[in-house]
Amino acid sequence: MGGINTVAVLFFFLFVAITLIITYWAAKRTRTASEFYAAGRSISGFQNGLALAGDYMSAASFLGIAGMVATKGFDGLIYSIGFLVGWPIVMFLIAEPLRNLGKYTFADVVAYRLRYTPIKTVSALGSLTVVILYLIAQMVGSGNLIKLLFGFPYELSVIIVGTLMVVYVLFGGMIATTWVQIIKAVLLLGGATVLALLTLAQFGFSPESMFSAVKTQYGEKFLQPGGLVKDPLDAISLGTALMFGTAGLPHILMRFYTVPDAPEARKSVFYATGFIGYFYILTFVIGFGALLLVGKDRILAVDKGGNMAAPLLAEVLGGNPFLGFIAAVAFATILAVVAGLTLAGASALSHDLYVGVLKRGKATEDEEIKVTKIAVLLLGVVSILLGIAFKGQNVAFLVGLAFAIAASANFPALVLSIYWKRFTTAGAVASILTGLTLSVVLIVLSKAVWVDILKNPAPVFPWGNPALISMPAAFLVGVLVSLLTSEKEAEEKYEEMKVRKLLGLGAE
Length: 508
Known about the structure:
The chain has helices at 6-28, 33-38, 45-56, 59-72, 76-101, 106-110, 116-150, 154-201, 207-218, 232-245, 250-253, 262-293, 296-302, 309-358, 365-389, 396-419, 425-444, 447-451, 467-484, 488-503. The protein is mainly α. The longest helix is centred in the middle third of the chain and has 50 residues, at 309-358. The N and C termini lie far apart (51 Å).
Protein backbone atom coordinates (compact mmCIF):
# COMPACT_ATOMS: atom_id res chain seq x y z
CA MET A 1 0.00 0.00 0.00
CA GLY A 2 1.05 3.65 -0.37
CA GLY A 3 1.14 6.04 -3.33
CA ILE A 4 -1.56 6.38 -5.96
CA ASN A 5 -3.52 3.20 -6.72
CA THR A 6 -4.60 3.58 -10.38
CA VAL A 7 -7.40 1.01 -10.11
CA ALA A 8 -8.80 2.76 -7.02
CA VAL A 9 -8.73 6.13 -8.80
CA LEU A 10 -10.50 4.64 -11.87
CA PHE A 11 -13.24 3.04 -9.73
CA PHE A 12 -13.55 6.30 -7.78
CA PHE A 13 -14.09 8.39 -10.94
CA LEU A 14 -16.55 5.79 -12.28
CA PHE A 15 -18.58 5.96 -9.06
CA VAL A 16 -18.51 9.76 -9.01
CA ALA A 17 -19.56 9.95 -12.70
CA ILE A 18 -22.52 7.58 -12.18
CA THR A 19 -23.70 9.35 -9.02
CA LEU A 20 -23.43 12.79 -10.67
CA ILE A 21 -25.59 11.56 -13.58
CA ILE A 22 -28.13 10.35 -10.99
CA THR A 23 -27.96 13.75 -9.26
CA TYR A 24 -28.67 15.49 -12.59
CA TRP A 25 -31.64 13.16 -13.18
CA ALA A 26 -32.89 13.69 -9.60
CA ALA A 27 -32.52 17.48 -9.84
CA LYS A 28 -35.09 17.53 -12.67
CA ARG A 29 -37.58 15.69 -10.43
CA THR A 30 -37.04 17.77 -7.30
CA ARG A 31 -39.36 20.77 -7.13
CA THR A 32 -41.42 20.65 -3.92
CA ALA A 33 -40.38 20.41 -0.25
CA SER A 34 -41.79 16.86 -0.11
CA GLU A 35 -39.60 15.85 -3.08
CA PHE A 36 -36.53 17.54 -1.60
CA TYR A 37 -36.83 16.17 1.97
CA ALA A 38 -38.69 12.89 1.36
CA ALA A 39 -38.19 11.93 -2.33
CA GLY A 40 -41.92 12.62 -2.89
CA ARG A 41 -42.71 9.55 -0.64
CA SER A 42 -42.01 7.47 -3.77
CA ILE A 43 -39.38 5.02 -2.47
CA SER A 44 -40.51 1.38 -2.04
CA GLY A 45 -39.89 -0.63 1.14
CA PHE A 46 -37.16 -2.71 -0.53
CA GLN A 47 -35.41 0.34 -1.99
CA ASN A 48 -35.61 2.15 1.35
CA GLY A 49 -34.26 -0.96 3.12
CA LEU A 50 -31.19 -0.84 0.86
CA ALA A 51 -30.87 2.94 1.32
CA LEU A 52 -31.17 2.57 5.12
CA ALA A 53 -28.43 -0.05 5.01
CA GLY A 54 -26.35 2.28 2.82
CA ASP A 55 -26.93 5.17 5.23
CA TYR A 56 -26.08 3.08 8.29
CA MET A 57 -23.10 0.96 7.14
CA SER A 58 -20.52 3.73 7.44
CA ALA A 59 -16.77 3.55 6.98
CA ALA A 60 -16.61 3.04 10.76
CA SER A 61 -18.61 -0.16 10.27
CA PHE A 62 -16.65 -1.52 7.32
CA LEU A 63 -13.12 -0.47 8.24
CA GLY A 64 -13.50 0.02 12.00
CA ILE A 65 -15.20 -3.23 13.04
CA ALA A 66 -13.04 -5.41 10.76
CA GLY A 67 -9.98 -3.67 12.22
CA MET A 68 -11.27 -4.06 15.76
CA VAL A 69 -11.83 -7.80 15.31
CA ALA A 70 -8.38 -8.14 13.70
CA THR A 71 -6.63 -6.37 16.59
CA LYS A 72 -8.87 -6.99 19.63
CA GLY A 73 -10.57 -10.28 18.78
CA PHE A 74 -13.93 -11.32 20.22
CA ASP A 75 -14.84 -7.88 21.67
CA GLY A 76 -15.25 -6.52 18.13
CA LEU A 77 -18.58 -8.36 18.35
CA ILE A 78 -19.87 -5.71 20.81
CA TYR A 79 -19.91 -3.22 17.94
CA SER A 80 -21.31 -5.71 15.38
CA ILE A 81 -24.13 -6.84 17.65
CA GLY A 82 -24.75 -3.38 19.17
CA PHE A 83 -25.15 -1.76 15.75
CA LEU A 84 -27.49 -4.56 14.64
CA VAL A 85 -29.81 -5.08 17.64
CA GLY A 86 -31.01 -1.47 17.53
CA TRP A 87 -33.00 -2.32 14.39
CA PRO A 88 -35.76 -4.46 15.98
CA ILE A 89 -36.33 -1.50 18.37
CA VAL A 90 -36.70 0.77 15.34
CA MET A 91 -39.03 -1.73 13.65
CA PHE A 92 -41.40 -2.39 16.59
CA LEU A 93 -41.36 0.96 18.43
CA ILE A 94 -40.51 3.73 16.00
CA ALA A 95 -40.93 3.09 12.26
CA GLU A 96 -44.73 3.05 11.82
CA PRO A 97 -45.64 5.80 14.35
CA LEU A 98 -42.89 7.98 12.89
CA ARG A 99 -44.22 7.56 9.34
CA ASN A 100 -47.85 8.16 10.40
CA LEU A 101 -47.23 11.16 12.67
CA GLY A 102 -44.32 13.06 11.13
CA LYS A 103 -43.60 15.01 7.99
CA TYR A 104 -39.84 15.48 7.47
CA THR A 105 -37.97 15.22 10.82
CA PHE A 106 -38.39 13.30 14.10
CA ALA A 107 -39.08 16.64 15.83
CA ASP A 108 -42.43 16.72 13.93
CA VAL A 109 -43.49 13.66 15.98
CA VAL A 110 -42.30 14.98 19.36
CA ALA A 111 -44.03 18.32 18.67
CA TYR A 112 -47.26 16.71 17.35
CA ARG A 113 -49.29 17.33 20.55
CA LEU A 114 -46.82 19.50 22.51
CA ARG A 115 -45.95 23.20 22.17
CA TYR A 116 -44.24 23.69 18.83
CA THR A 117 -41.55 26.33 19.46
CA PRO A 118 -39.70 24.93 22.53
CA ILE A 119 -39.82 21.35 21.20
CA LYS A 120 -38.56 22.28 17.73
CA THR A 121 -35.75 24.38 19.26
CA VAL A 122 -34.32 21.70 21.59
CA SER A 123 -34.92 18.86 19.08
CA ALA A 124 -32.98 20.77 16.42
CA LEU A 125 -30.18 21.34 18.94
CA GLY A 126 -29.98 17.58 19.65
CA SER A 127 -30.13 16.69 15.93
CA LEU A 128 -27.47 19.20 14.91
CA THR A 129 -25.10 18.08 17.67
CA VAL A 130 -25.39 14.44 16.56
CA VAL A 131 -25.06 15.33 12.85
CA ILE A 132 -22.01 17.60 13.27
CA LEU A 133 -20.13 15.15 15.50
CA TYR A 134 -20.90 12.32 13.08
CA LEU A 135 -19.86 14.49 10.11
CA ILE A 136 -16.50 15.42 11.70
CA ALA A 137 -15.73 11.74 12.29
CA GLN A 138 -16.61 10.86 8.68
CA MET A 139 -14.64 13.80 7.23
CA VAL A 140 -11.50 13.03 9.24
CA GLY A 141 -11.86 9.33 8.36
CA SER A 142 -12.24 10.16 4.67
CA GLY A 143 -9.18 12.44 4.73
CA ASN A 144 -7.00 9.71 6.24
CA LEU A 145 -8.39 6.96 4.00
CA ILE A 146 -8.00 8.85 0.73
CA LYS A 147 -4.57 10.13 1.68
CA LEU A 148 -3.47 6.57 2.37
CA LEU A 149 -5.11 4.86 -0.60
CA PHE A 150 -5.17 7.50 -3.34
CA GLY A 151 -2.10 9.53 -2.44
CA PHE A 152 -4.02 12.86 -2.31
CA PRO A 153 -3.10 15.39 0.43
CA TYR A 154 -5.37 15.23 3.51
CA GLU A 155 -6.86 18.72 3.06
CA LEU A 156 -7.64 18.08 -0.65
CA SER A 157 -9.34 14.78 0.28
CA VAL A 158 -11.59 16.53 2.81
CA ILE A 159 -12.46 19.27 0.29
CA ILE A 160 -13.31 16.66 -2.41
CA VAL A 161 -15.65 14.76 -0.05
CA GLY A 162 -17.25 18.00 1.22
CA THR A 163 -17.80 19.36 -2.31
CA LEU A 164 -19.35 16.13 -3.61
CA MET A 165 -21.73 15.79 -0.66
CA VAL A 166 -22.90 19.39 -1.15
CA VAL A 167 -23.50 18.73 -4.89
CA TYR A 168 -25.51 15.55 -4.23
CA VAL A 169 -27.77 17.14 -1.61
CA LEU A 170 -28.01 20.67 -3.03
CA PHE A 171 -29.15 19.61 -6.51
CA GLY A 172 -30.65 16.15 -6.03
CA GLY A 173 -32.14 16.34 -2.50
CA MET A 174 -33.43 13.10 -1.01
CA ILE A 175 -33.94 11.42 -4.42
CA ALA A 176 -30.24 11.66 -5.33
CA THR A 177 -29.14 10.86 -1.76
CA THR A 178 -31.33 7.73 -1.74
CA TRP A 179 -29.92 6.37 -5.00
CA VAL A 180 -26.31 7.15 -3.99
CA GLN A 181 -26.99 5.15 -0.81
CA ILE A 182 -28.58 2.26 -2.74
CA ILE A 183 -25.60 2.02 -5.15
CA LYS A 184 -23.17 2.21 -2.25
CA ALA A 185 -25.06 -0.53 -0.31
CA VAL A 186 -24.96 -2.88 -3.32
CA LEU A 187 -21.24 -2.20 -3.89
CA LEU A 188 -20.40 -2.64 -0.20
CA LEU A 189 -22.42 -5.84 0.24
CA GLY A 190 -20.97 -7.25 -3.03
CA GLY A 191 -17.38 -6.29 -2.20
CA ALA A 192 -17.58 -7.59 1.38
CA THR A 193 -19.16 -10.86 0.18
CA VAL A 194 -16.34 -11.51 -2.32
CA LEU A 195 -13.73 -10.62 0.33
CA ALA A 196 -15.33 -12.98 2.89
CA LEU A 197 -15.65 -15.82 0.33
CA LEU A 198 -12.00 -15.47 -0.75
CA THR A 199 -11.03 -15.51 2.95
CA LEU A 200 -13.07 -18.63 3.76
CA ALA A 201 -11.67 -20.36 0.64
CA GLN A 202 -8.26 -20.26 2.37
CA PHE A 203 -9.73 -22.42 5.16
CA GLY A 204 -11.72 -24.89 3.02
CA PHE A 205 -14.89 -22.77 3.53
CA SER A 206 -14.92 -23.87 7.18
CA PRO A 207 -15.32 -21.08 9.78
CA GLU A 208 -14.36 -23.70 12.41
CA SER A 209 -10.97 -24.19 10.72
CA MET A 210 -10.49 -20.41 10.65
CA PHE A 211 -11.21 -20.06 14.38
CA SER A 212 -8.92 -23.06 15.14
CA ALA A 213 -6.13 -21.28 13.25
CA VAL A 214 -6.76 -18.11 15.34
CA LYS A 215 -6.55 -20.22 18.53
CA THR A 216 -3.31 -21.86 17.35
CA GLN A 217 -1.58 -18.61 16.29
CA TYR A 218 -2.87 -16.10 18.86
CA GLY A 219 -4.16 -18.22 21.75
CA GLU A 220 -7.66 -18.96 23.06
CA LYS A 221 -7.86 -15.55 24.78
CA PHE A 222 -8.31 -13.88 21.39
CA LEU A 223 -11.65 -15.69 21.04
CA GLN A 224 -12.85 -14.70 24.51
CA PRO A 225 -14.35 -11.42 25.88
CA GLY A 226 -12.14 -8.78 27.54
CA GLY A 227 -9.79 -7.77 24.71
CA LEU A 228 -11.29 -4.30 24.24
CA VAL A 229 -13.55 -3.40 27.19
CA LYS A 230 -12.38 -4.66 30.59
CA ASP A 231 -15.22 -3.34 32.78
CA PRO A 232 -18.52 -5.24 32.19
CA LEU A 233 -20.56 -2.12 33.07
CA ASP A 234 -18.60 -0.11 30.49
CA ALA A 235 -19.39 -2.83 27.92
CA ILE A 236 -23.11 -2.65 28.80
CA SER A 237 -23.00 1.16 28.55
CA LEU A 238 -21.38 0.99 25.10
CA GLY A 239 -23.96 -1.61 24.00
CA THR A 240 -26.78 0.64 25.29
CA ALA A 241 -25.51 3.61 23.24
CA LEU A 242 -25.17 1.54 20.06
CA MET A 243 -28.52 -0.21 20.51
CA PHE A 244 -30.76 2.75 21.43
CA GLY A 245 -28.69 5.36 19.56
CA THR A 246 -29.76 3.77 16.28
CA ALA A 247 -33.37 4.66 17.11
CA GLY A 248 -32.40 8.30 17.69
CA LEU A 249 -30.15 9.07 14.70
CA PRO A 250 -31.79 11.93 12.72
CA HIS A 251 -30.53 10.82 9.28
CA ILE A 252 -31.89 7.28 9.85
CA LEU A 253 -35.27 8.43 11.20
CA MET A 254 -35.69 10.83 8.26
CA ARG A 255 -35.61 7.93 5.81
CA PHE A 256 -39.04 6.67 7.01
CA TYR A 257 -40.71 9.69 5.39
CA THR A 258 -39.54 8.62 1.92
CA VAL A 259 -41.93 5.62 1.72
CA PRO A 260 -45.65 5.98 0.83
CA ASP A 261 -47.13 4.52 4.06
CA ALA A 262 -46.49 2.81 7.43
CA PRO A 263 -46.48 -0.83 6.14
CA GLU A 264 -43.74 0.13 3.64
CA ALA A 265 -41.83 1.78 6.54
CA ARG A 266 -41.95 -1.48 8.48
CA LYS A 267 -40.97 -3.50 5.40
CA SER A 268 -37.99 -1.21 4.86
CA VAL A 269 -36.72 -1.89 8.40
CA PHE A 270 -37.18 -5.64 7.81
CA TYR A 271 -35.04 -5.51 4.66
CA ALA A 272 -32.49 -3.15 6.25
CA THR A 273 -32.08 -5.45 9.28
CA GLY A 274 -31.41 -8.41 6.94
CA PHE A 275 -28.83 -6.52 4.86
CA ILE A 276 -27.10 -5.00 7.92
CA GLY A 277 -27.06 -8.31 9.85
CA TYR A 278 -25.57 -10.12 6.86
CA PHE A 279 -22.94 -7.39 6.49
CA TYR A 280 -21.85 -7.56 10.14
CA ILE A 281 -21.40 -11.35 9.90
CA LEU A 282 -19.08 -10.68 6.96
CA THR A 283 -17.04 -8.11 8.93
CA PHE A 284 -16.32 -10.78 11.53
CA VAL A 285 -14.99 -13.18 8.87
CA ILE A 286 -13.00 -10.35 7.25
CA GLY A 287 -11.54 -9.27 10.63
CA PHE A 288 -10.31 -12.74 11.63
CA GLY A 289 -9.21 -13.37 8.01
CA ALA A 290 -7.06 -10.22 8.11
CA LEU A 291 -5.60 -11.31 11.46
CA LEU A 292 -4.50 -14.66 10.01
CA LEU A 293 -3.60 -13.77 6.41
CA VAL A 294 -2.17 -10.25 6.89
CA GLY A 295 -0.97 -10.46 10.48
CA LYS A 296 -1.66 -8.23 13.50
CA ASP A 297 1.77 -6.55 13.41
CA ARG A 298 1.47 -5.50 9.75
CA ILE A 299 -2.07 -4.18 10.26
CA LEU A 300 -0.96 -2.07 13.24
CA ALA A 301 2.16 -0.91 11.39
CA VAL A 302 0.02 0.62 8.60
CA ASP A 303 -2.56 2.19 10.96
CA LYS A 304 -2.49 2.09 14.77
CA GLY A 305 -6.28 1.92 14.93
CA GLY A 306 -6.30 -1.20 12.72
CA ASN A 307 -8.64 0.51 10.23
CA MET A 308 -6.78 -0.72 7.16
CA ALA A 309 -7.31 -4.44 7.98
CA ALA A 310 -9.96 -4.96 5.26
CA PRO A 311 -8.05 -3.16 2.44
CA LEU A 312 -4.84 -5.02 3.40
CA LEU A 313 -6.71 -8.33 3.28
CA ALA A 314 -8.07 -7.40 -0.17
CA GLU A 315 -4.49 -6.73 -1.35
CA VAL A 316 -3.28 -10.13 -0.06
CA LEU A 317 -6.20 -12.05 -1.64
CA GLY A 318 -6.85 -10.17 -4.88
CA GLY A 319 -3.78 -8.04 -5.54
CA ASN A 320 -3.78 -4.39 -6.57
CA PRO A 321 -7.04 -4.47 -8.63
CA PHE A 322 -9.11 -5.86 -5.73
CA LEU A 323 -7.47 -3.43 -3.30
CA GLY A 324 -8.45 -0.61 -5.68
CA PHE A 325 -12.04 -1.83 -5.82
CA ILE A 326 -12.34 -2.14 -2.02
CA ALA A 327 -10.74 1.31 -1.57
CA ALA A 328 -13.27 2.85 -3.98
CA VAL A 329 -16.12 1.06 -2.14
CA ALA A 330 -14.87 2.50 1.17
CA PHE A 331 -14.82 5.97 -0.38
CA ALA A 332 -18.34 5.51 -1.78
CA THR A 333 -19.38 4.44 1.74
CA ILE A 334 -18.18 7.74 3.21
CA LEU A 335 -19.82 9.83 0.48
CA ALA A 336 -23.22 8.18 0.92
CA VAL A 337 -23.20 8.59 4.70
CA VAL A 338 -22.12 12.26 4.66
CA ALA A 339 -24.82 13.04 2.07
CA GLY A 340 -27.51 11.57 4.38
CA LEU A 341 -26.10 13.42 7.39
CA THR A 342 -25.98 16.74 5.53
CA LEU A 343 -29.62 16.43 4.45
CA ALA A 344 -30.69 15.61 8.04
CA GLY A 345 -28.70 18.56 9.43
CA ALA A 346 -30.05 20.96 6.78
CA SER A 347 -33.64 19.87 7.49
CA ALA A 348 -33.13 20.49 11.24
CA LEU A 349 -31.91 24.02 10.43
CA SER A 350 -34.55 24.89 7.84
CA HIS A 351 -37.67 22.82 8.67
CA ASP A 352 -37.34 22.81 12.48
CA LEU A 353 -35.56 26.07 13.30
CA TYR A 354 -36.41 28.42 10.41
CA VAL A 355 -39.96 27.30 9.54
CA GLY A 356 -40.94 25.82 12.94
CA VAL A 357 -39.43 28.42 15.27
CA LEU A 358 -38.68 31.65 13.36
CA LYS A 359 -41.66 31.56 10.97
CA ARG A 360 -43.99 29.64 13.33
CA GLY A 361 -44.91 27.20 10.54
CA LYS A 362 -45.93 29.92 8.08
CA ALA A 363 -43.21 29.79 5.38
CA THR A 364 -43.91 28.92 1.74
CA GLU A 365 -42.40 25.75 0.18
CA ASP A 366 -40.12 27.81 -2.10
CA GLU A 367 -38.87 29.79 0.88
CA GLU A 368 -38.24 26.57 2.88
CA ILE A 369 -36.29 24.91 0.04
CA LYS A 370 -34.22 28.07 -0.46
CA VAL A 371 -33.28 28.13 3.24
CA THR A 372 -32.50 24.38 3.12
CA LYS A 373 -30.08 24.90 0.23
CA ILE A 374 -28.34 27.71 2.13
CA ALA A 375 -28.16 25.38 5.16
CA VAL A 376 -26.60 22.63 2.97
CA LEU A 377 -23.90 25.05 1.79
CA LEU A 378 -23.29 26.21 5.35
CA LEU A 379 -23.01 22.64 6.66
CA GLY A 380 -20.67 21.76 3.77
CA VAL A 381 -18.30 24.63 4.60
CA VAL A 382 -18.45 23.92 8.37
CA SER A 383 -17.78 20.20 7.78
CA ILE A 384 -14.75 20.90 5.58
CA LEU A 385 -13.32 23.41 8.07
CA LEU A 386 -13.90 21.10 11.07
CA GLY A 387 -12.55 18.11 9.11
CA ILE A 388 -9.32 20.04 8.45
CA ALA A 389 -9.19 21.42 12.03
CA PHE A 390 -9.49 17.92 13.52
CA LYS A 391 -6.67 16.56 11.31
CA GLY A 392 -4.58 13.96 13.15
CA GLN A 393 -7.02 13.74 16.08
CA ASN A 394 -8.38 10.49 17.42
CA VAL A 395 -12.02 10.90 16.50
CA ALA A 396 -13.31 7.48 17.56
CA PHE A 397 -14.92 9.08 20.61
CA LEU A 398 -16.96 11.40 18.34
CA VAL A 399 -18.90 8.46 16.87
CA GLY A 400 -19.49 7.04 20.36
CA LEU A 401 -20.59 10.49 21.49
CA ALA A 402 -22.97 10.85 18.53
CA PHE A 403 -24.63 7.51 19.39
CA ALA A 404 -24.69 8.35 23.13
CA ILE A 405 -26.38 11.72 22.44
CA ALA A 406 -28.86 10.15 20.02
CA ALA A 407 -29.72 7.49 22.65
CA SER A 408 -29.92 10.03 25.50
CA ALA A 409 -31.37 13.22 23.97
CA ASN A 410 -33.52 12.04 21.04
CA PHE A 411 -34.70 8.49 21.83
CA PRO A 412 -36.35 9.05 25.30
CA ALA A 413 -38.29 12.14 24.16
CA LEU A 414 -39.41 10.38 20.97
CA VAL A 415 -40.65 7.24 22.77
CA LEU A 416 -42.35 9.14 25.62
CA SER A 417 -44.12 11.49 23.19
CA ILE A 418 -45.51 8.55 21.20
CA TYR A 419 -46.46 6.19 24.05
CA TRP A 420 -47.14 8.24 27.24
CA LYS A 421 -50.26 10.37 27.54
CA ARG A 422 -49.00 12.46 30.51
CA PHE A 423 -45.83 13.60 28.70
CA THR A 424 -45.68 17.41 28.67
CA THR A 425 -43.72 20.10 26.81
CA ALA A 426 -41.71 20.91 29.96
CA GLY A 427 -40.96 17.19 30.41
CA ALA A 428 -39.79 16.85 26.79
CA VAL A 429 -37.54 19.92 26.95
CA ALA A 430 -36.05 18.78 30.30
CA SER A 431 -35.52 15.22 28.98
CA ILE A 432 -33.73 16.35 25.79
CA LEU A 433 -31.53 18.90 27.60
CA THR A 434 -30.64 16.41 30.36
CA GLY A 435 -29.68 13.68 27.87
CA LEU A 436 -27.70 16.10 25.70
CA THR A 437 -25.82 17.85 28.54
CA LEU A 438 -25.09 14.75 30.61
CA SER A 439 -23.78 12.70 27.69
CA VAL A 440 -21.49 15.52 26.48
CA VAL A 441 -20.14 16.31 29.98
CA LEU A 442 -19.47 12.65 30.85
CA ILE A 443 -17.67 12.04 27.55
CA VAL A 444 -15.47 15.11 28.17
CA LEU A 445 -14.63 13.68 31.63
CA SER A 446 -13.85 10.21 30.20
CA LYS A 447 -10.42 8.93 29.16
CA ALA A 448 -10.95 9.65 25.43
CA VAL A 449 -11.05 13.42 26.04
CA TRP A 450 -9.88 14.10 29.61
CA VAL A 451 -6.67 12.03 29.32
CA ASP A 452 -5.99 11.51 25.59
CA ILE A 453 -6.75 15.07 24.40
CA LEU A 454 -6.62 17.31 27.48
CA LYS A 455 -3.59 15.38 28.83
CA ASN A 456 -4.83 15.00 32.43
CA PRO A 457 -3.33 12.09 34.40
CA ALA A 458 -6.57 10.15 35.04
CA PRO A 459 -10.20 10.27 33.85
CA VAL A 460 -12.90 11.70 36.15
CA PHE A 461 -15.57 9.45 34.59
CA PRO A 462 -14.34 5.83 34.49
CA TRP A 463 -16.31 4.50 31.48
CA GLY A 464 -15.72 5.11 27.79
CA ASN A 465 -19.42 5.64 27.04
CA PRO A 466 -22.00 7.40 29.27
CA ALA A 467 -25.28 6.03 27.80
CA LEU A 468 -26.01 3.71 30.74
CA ILE A 469 -26.27 6.82 32.95
CA SER A 470 -27.37 9.59 30.56
CA MET A 471 -30.21 7.69 28.84
CA PRO A 472 -32.02 6.49 32.03
CA ALA A 473 -31.48 10.00 33.48
CA ALA A 474 -33.20 11.55 30.43
CA PHE A 475 -36.17 9.14 30.84
CA LEU A 476 -36.36 9.81 34.59
CA VAL A 477 -36.21 13.61 34.27
CA GLY A 478 -38.78 13.55 31.43
CA VAL A 479 -41.20 11.51 33.59
CA LEU A 480 -40.66 13.50 36.80
CA VAL A 481 -41.03 16.93 35.17
CA SER A 482 -44.13 15.75 33.28
CA LEU A 483 -45.69 14.51 36.54
CA LEU A 484 -44.93 17.86 38.19
CA THR A 485 -46.42 19.86 35.30
CA SER A 486 -49.78 19.49 33.64
CA GLU A 487 -50.72 20.07 29.98
CA LYS A 488 -54.40 19.41 29.37
CA GLU A 489 -54.29 20.20 25.66
CA ALA A 490 -51.49 17.65 25.10
CA GLU A 491 -53.45 14.96 26.98
CA GLU A 492 -56.61 15.67 24.98
CA LYS A 493 -54.73 15.48 21.72
CA TYR A 494 -53.23 12.10 22.68
CA GLU A 495 -56.37 10.14 21.68
CA GLU A 496 -56.44 11.84 18.27
CA MET A 497 -52.73 11.10 17.89
CA LYS A 498 -53.31 7.44 18.81
CA VAL A 499 -55.78 7.00 15.94
CA ARG A 500 -53.40 8.60 13.46
CA LYS A 501 -50.45 6.63 14.87
CA LEU A 502 -52.24 3.30 14.42
CA LEU A 503 -54.25 3.92 11.24
CA GLY A 504 -52.29 6.65 9.47
CA LEU A 505 -55.44 8.77 8.97
CA GLY A 506 -54.36 12.26 7.91
CA ALA A 507 -50.74 11.25 7.24
CA GLU A 508 -49.20 12.50 3.99
